[in-house]
Design goal:
- This protein is mainly beta.
- The protein folds into four domains: 133 residues, no CATH class; 97 residues; 110 residues, no CATH class; 123 residues, Immunoglobulin-like (Sandwich).
- The protein is built from one helix and 31 strands.
- The strands form four sheets. It has a 19-stranded mixed sheet that branches. Strands 1, 2, 3, 6 and 9 form a five-stranded mixed sheet that branches. A four-stranded antiparallel sheet has the order 23-22-25-28, with no helix packed on it.
- A hairpin with a 5-residue loop joins strand 7 and strand 8.
Length: 520
Amino acid sequence: MRCLAGAGLLMLVACNQVFGIGKTEPYDAAPDVIADVAFVKLTWQVADVERNGDPARDALDAPIVPAPEVRYAALGQPWVDTTYSPIDGAVVVDRAFFQPTQDGMSTVDARLPTWRLEYTLADGVPHEVQWSPEDKQGQLTVPLFGRATRKLVPIGGGYTVTPTGAPANYSNPRVFTTGQWSEGLIPSYLGGTAIDYDFVNAAAMSGSRSSPEPELGDRAFLVDYNSNAEGCRFAVGSAALDSAALEANKHSPTTAAWDASRKPITSETVSFETISRFLTALGPLHTGMVSGTTAFGIAASTRMPPLTGVAPSAVLPVVTELPAPVMMTLLQCPFDVTPLPSAAQPVALDAFSRLLHVQLVSSRRVLGAVLASGMETAIASGMSTEFKLSFPAAIPTMISLATPTNPKIALDGAAPEQIDIGPARGTLVLDFVPEMGQASPDYYDVTLHQLEAGKLVTRRIYTVTAPHVELEGATLAPGANYVLEIRSFKGHPGAVSGDFRPVSFPYGSAIVFTRTFRAS
C-alpha cells in the first residue's frame, strides 16, 4: 500500500511502519508517493550502526524533523509555496518542470528546464538548489551521523572507570561514543588511573546530543593522547567501556581493559606540485602563507559525504578552518610532517573504515573576519598505511559577477576589497570556471555571507551542478558588505542527475572566498 504525500494531498500515516520520528529506509528504496504526482525528495541521509556496534551496510533516508519550509519557482519567477511530507520527505512541484523544452525546432536540443527549490531548516538559513532533475529522481540530502531519533540525555549521567592495565596518569584523556557520535573533555581529571566523566561535557559530532543506547549498538571509549615537538597529537592508548548506558544523577561504574598498542600510519606527503596548483588557482586571493593539517581517524561512515562542516574537534591541537569529517580523530599533524607518528586504534572499531583527511588553507582577514580558502581531501581505507594522496576537486577560478549595470565584475582579481557593484536590482549572475586540467566537479555550493562585527553571517546557500548561479539582487542590503564562498565537490557521482546520495572516494572539496563587495 502506498501513501499520499505532498501539497494538498491526504497523508495516510497508518500505512507506514514508523521508526522513531518517521519512516527510515535504504536510500534506494522505492518512492512512497503515488506514481502520477510530480515530486522530488529532501531527507536526512542517516549513518547508523548495527546492534553489534559495527557500521550499518547502507545509509538510510529519513524525513527531516522539524519539517523544513519549502517552496519552488522557475528561475527569475516568484516563489510558489508547497508542503513537505513528514512521511517520506517528498516535495510536490509543478509537473511542467519535468517536461523537456526545445531550443528552436530541433528535438536534439530538448532538455529539462532549470528551476529552483528552496528549503529552510531549523537554523533559518535559506538553501536554494538550481537544478533540472527527472521526475521523482531528484533527491537532496542533509547528512546525519547517528540515528534520527535522539534520546534525551539524563541529567547528571556519566561514567566512572578505572581500566585494568592503565598508566599511572593520563596526558590528555577524552571520552568518545560511537553510533550516536560524541566526544568530550574530562575537566575534572586531576591525575591517576580513575576517570570520572559527566556526559554534560559530551559534544555531539552530528545533530543534537543524544543519550547512547547500547542495545542499539552505541559504544563508549576512553582514549588518551600525547603531543610531540612537531605539533602532532596522537592517541597512545584506549579502552572500550563495557557499557555506554547512562542513568540520571549517577556516574555509572564501568569496567574496561587498557590497550596501549599503536599502529603505524603512513601516507604520501603533500607535494610541491599540489601546493603550486593551489596557489596558481587562487592567484591574487592568496596573500599569506599556506597552512594545513593531516588528520587520521575512525570514520563514522563511508556511505556518507565526509566533509560536512562539523564543529572543530576538542582533541585537535590545531582548530581546522575548513569542513572536517565525522570521525574519532586519533592523529593530527601539520600537513608537512613526515613521517607520521603511530597511533592507538581501538580494536573494537576494526569494522569501521579508516579515514585520512588533509587540508591546505590560505586565509586572509577582511573587516575582522577570517576568509579561509582551501582545498581538502578525504581518503578511505581498511588500513592505516599506504594512503595515496589526491585532491580531486577542481578549484573555482575566473570568478565574475554580472549586474544589470555592469556585465562583468571580477571578484578574484587584484582589486581592493569591498568592491562597489552598484545597484543590485533584478537578477545578478555569478559565473566561474573550474581550474584547467582537472575533472569537472560534481556540484558546487555557493554561500552568501554578510560581514558583521568581524564575523561571517550566512544569508543564503545556493547549490548548482554547473558553475553558474542566478541571485536575486533584493537579497543584498545597500551598503552592507558581502562575500561569496564558492565550494566545489568531487565524490557525488549522482549529483548531475539530481541524486545527491551516492558517495565515492577519494572525496574532495575546494573552497574559494571571493573579494568582498557591497551594493549601493
